[in-house]
Please model this.
Amino acid sequence: MCGIAGEAAFNGGTASREPVLKMMGAMTSRGPDGRGTWDGAGWVALGHQRLSIIDLSSTGAQPMLDEGLAVTFNGCIYNYKELRRELEPEFTFRTTSDTEVILKAYRKWGDGFVHHLVGMFAIALYDPQRQEMLLVRDRLGIKPLYVATLPGKLRFASTLPALVASGGVDTGIDEAALHHYLSWHSIVPAPRTILRGIQKLPAATIRTVRADGTWHDSEYWRPDYTRRAQHSGWSPREWQDAIRDALRTAVRRRMVADVPVGVLLSGGLDSSLLVALLAEEGQRGLSTFSIGFDGVGGDAGNEFAYSDLVAREFGTRHERLHISTSEFAPSIDAAVGAMSEPMASHDVTAFHVLSKTVAEHLKVVQCGQGADEVFAGYRYHQPLAGVGRQDALSAFSKSFADHTHEDLVGILEPEWFCGSDVSSQVLAANLDAPGADTALDAVLRLDTHLLMVDDPVKRLDNMSMAWGIEARVPFLDHELVELAASCPPGLKASQGGKGILKDLGRQLLPSAIIDRPKGYFPVPALRHLEEPFTSMVRDALHAPEAKQRGLFRPAYIDKLLADPNTRRTPVNSNVLWQFALLEMWLQRHRVG
Model:
């Protein structure tokens, strides 16, 4: 786990170490345990900020070289020991790291090496024989990889601000990305980012970059959301048993580390299941962490009663962190600074504050992100269970979108408004694609493989890595996702959502954890805005930079400020906070 960076110079050019060092300097929190650079290829320079999780010795440092190959890598390969045993008859290993396994796997299988990796990863690998550099992102996009194309060169980094720090990047706002941000509660899916000059490598993608400046992308994994012949005739109990086995394997895999591993325990079904399965695996003295806030506007600020119940049931070393409103407000600026892209979800700052506490105890945690997308746990999934395949787009848009294309006419100043409905076009292209049997299948595929990557997955990575914490997500184990994709959608959407996980939970957890209304990470102060947050919002939207930028129609903003808590998104977020957060991020990072 770390921050990676690099530059490729084309057509006889020489890559410069200076911008790589600038990018690394902007990512020290992601890799506080060491740094390294390599520029032995002439046209390729690589950098690495290290967070030591596996092979803590200096031999595990990166960039790592092997028979002319060079690699810099962010993430963790959970099956690296098994792969090493498979490769040892052909290759001699000099470290115990998962990084060296990547190099040896590439030497054996070429581009096909990625199919043998189980884990989360962003990889840059230079091959001198092919005179190519590969950029690779894991199947579910858990590890980020940003790319900027400049005249005669390409740069990449684990964060968007790192690329900005390298200099020369177009930091103007991408109008289509702005359309996405306002349509989907701040989600901007790959390949776009909010800035014109920086893109994201999509999940499950290999980008092959050549010395002449040409490149091509190939998607190496995408499961079908259809019913498989081998599962024909399975009963609900057989599906439940299969999901339990796959989730148990996913949890076991994510215990691989040379340091202790804990759990972020919200008290909800998903994280509680992880604790239960770890207990089944024989984990004793497991460290768990929960966070709560002051209640505001009638909303409770914590779910400690449930996390305490799970902690007692399984005998964990549990730490509760309560943050008062007076303590929470000053945390906003640091959280915004840690965002690679603007993220308006109210729980982003909560993860940032919680990660700071976890970092005092551990370097690695497991958490329950991804379960709602994979197993149909959100309220907006429910209407999709009863509509025809051809109606997926209209039903999803109605239950998910914050603003329609027509709404944005009255929100954005004309120079920032897209002429076409680019957000609906993205949804239609994904929802109408073959490989999904039902409307709900199509939406779960969209959620899991496009939208989720730039919502809960991105916020977890950004906020945990700001404190040097590696967060692992068992529900996004690719084999579990493949199995869930083939599971009949009715089993997933039953019981108000995540029905098959609730049935599994009844075997393992206290009933109070399962049979209660679904909760969301509660941060009431950012749903129901009061002081000091209303002043914070007003200051951001009335700042000289905001006025000069002129994104939003003043009359619309003034209307929101006059009544800050009435307008909510379909997922119950505060619309005014969404607008203000964008300006806060642009101002904090001095872009746009």
Notes: DSSP finds 25 helices and 17 strands in the chain. Residues 342 and 582 are 6 Å apart (CA to CA). The mean pLDDT is 93.
